[in-house]
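A reminder from the course coordinator: this example appears on the midterm review sheet, so study it carefully.

Given structure:
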């Protein structure tokens, strides 16, 4: 039994923030790498979202790594966006014209941040990760996120360090829109979604099933919440919800989750309720004008525009998104047109390759 478990683990690729922990001073810039280790599996495409606290960090640039082109193959960047308002980064890239995937570890992308906060900590949270093989099938993936702590003076660090050691505190957990949706899908009866924006903002649009308690009223209305439930808190862009999360933790709530990017991030992928209308669908980006021709002997060409979506004559894949643990299923990056866009591209390329034979 132990050997089988070890063998299964060995067949799981991994994607990691490197270094996993960063300590930086206010005003300082630093770089992290998003590294992929295939663990001997062949990889031909990958995508990720990275969430961070926009009160602490500002992402200044993102650069393409050499992982998918390590053997000299041509690659195409599908999505490359930084949204500092939401604290969210997206990146996706695939190989083209290569019959085999890559199986050696490497850097997939590099991101540079500037520390804009004077204190605090930011998660560097990977989400919506998909790795695919040359056949367009998703690969089971272990996800290793990171953190950045804003360094203070040596004396402050020593004081805070001794305090935290002697008095452990319960904190809230930052989660992505994809993780929040998974929690609601798995156990909706024991999850409360709390909107802490103003009543006017809630009435304009809100996440389905959300309860409205404005942040200014939260402390006086906290008894309206069931403290035994998981509480997912959101604001417009994920800033005020942090304050609300801290307040609930201080009041003894133990299972508190802050929605990274707020309703602005949720709306990119999942429906919202607009009173008087049906739930709005996820925001779709304009369709690419590049469509593979069935008469062409070339592989499907892709737009390098960050907003481009892919169209293909290949049938949709039924493969599940990679996950660790298995319950973490992810939606594809908006602009792919489907959660398994990488799979669709891989299948299109596979069909072209068969025709060439």
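Designed residues:
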């Amino acid at each position: 039994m132990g050997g089988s478990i070890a063998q299964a683990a060995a067949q799981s690729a991994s994607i990691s923030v490197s270094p996993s922990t960063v300590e930086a001073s206010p005003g300082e810039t630093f770089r992290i790498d998003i590294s992929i280790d295939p663990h001997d599996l062949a990889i031909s495409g990958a995508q990720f979202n990275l969430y961070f606290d926009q009160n602490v960090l500002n992402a200044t640039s993102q650069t393409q790594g050499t992982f998918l082109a390590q053997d000299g193959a041509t690659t195409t960047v599908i999505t490359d966006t930084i949204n500092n308002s939401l604290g969210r980064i997206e990146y996706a890239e695939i190989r083209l014209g290569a019959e085999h995937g890559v199986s050696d570890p490497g850097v997939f992308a590099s991101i540079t941040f500037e520390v804009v906060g004077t204190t605090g900590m930011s998660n560097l949270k990977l989400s919506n990760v998909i790795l695919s093989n040359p056949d367009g099938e998703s690969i089971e993936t272990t996800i290793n996120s990171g953190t950045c702590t804003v360094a203070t003076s040596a004396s402050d660090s020593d004081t805070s360090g001794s305090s935290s050691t002697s008095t452990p505190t319960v904190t809230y957990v930052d989660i992505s829109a994809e993780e929040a949706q998974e929690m609601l899908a798995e156990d909706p009866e024991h999850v409360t979604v709390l909107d802490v924006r103003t009543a006017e903002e809630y009435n304009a649009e809100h996440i389905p099933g959300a309860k409205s308690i404005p942040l200014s009223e939260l402390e006086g209305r906290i008894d309206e919440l069931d403290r035994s439930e998981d509480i997912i808190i959101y604001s417009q862009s994920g800033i005020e919800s942090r304050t609300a999360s801290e307040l609930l933790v201080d009041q003894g709530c133990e299972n508190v989750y802050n929605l990274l990017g707020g309703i602005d991030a949720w709306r990119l992928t999942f429906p919202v309720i607009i009173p008087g209308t049906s739930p709005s669908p996820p925001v779709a980006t304009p369709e690419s004008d590049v469509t593979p021709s069935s008469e062409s002997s070339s592989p499907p060409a892709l737009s390098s525009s960050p907003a481009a979506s892919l169209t293909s004559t290949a049938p949709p894949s039924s493969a599940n998104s990679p996950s660790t643990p298995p319950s973490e299923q992810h939606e594809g990056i908006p602009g792919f047109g489907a959660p398994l866009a990488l799979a669709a591209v891989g299948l299109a390329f596979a069909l072209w390759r068969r025709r060439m034979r």
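Confidence is low (pLDDT under 50) at residues 1-9, 155-168, 283-340, 351-357. The chain has eight helices and 16 strands.
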